[in-house]
Amino acid sequence: MGYLSQIKSGGKQYIYLTEYCGSQTYSTKKEQRVFGFGEARKALLQMKRWRRRYEKEFPNELIELGYTFEDLSQWIKTLETGITPKGRSFDVNIKKRAVN
Question: What are the pLDDT digits (tens) for 72-88?
Fold first, then answer.
């Protein structure tokens, strides 16, 4: 199955779902990004919305790839805690809005 990865670009952090695929023809890459969640803070908010409305809003593309509600919950936990399911650090910089 897949795991979350991140790319930093232009001062923003983008979250992707990445799958290990071994060696690819004409490439030395051993993983492939299969879904882009977008900028980190927005990705977390979107994932939480999907969790609340899983049956109606979870992307069919992810369902077709075999991902479930449990996977979604784990991705949210990873982004909130900064720790992957295997205990590795996933340093995500999600700034919360100040409440007046």
Answer: 999 999 999 999 999 99
46, 62 contact by CB (below 8 A):
no
Beta bridge partners of 22: none
Rounded Cα distance, 64 and 81, in Å: 27
Nearest-angstrom CA–CA distance, 37 and 35? 6
Residue 98 pLDDT exceeds 50: no
Tokens of 81: 């805690």
Q: In what order do the strands lie in the sheet with 31-39?
A: 2-9, 12-20, 31-39
DSSP, collapsed to helix, strand or coil, labels residue 33 as: strand
| Full-model pTM | 0.83
Q: How many CA atoms lie within 13 A of 49 on its CB side?
A: 10
- Dig out the tokens for 65 from the structure: 């790839």
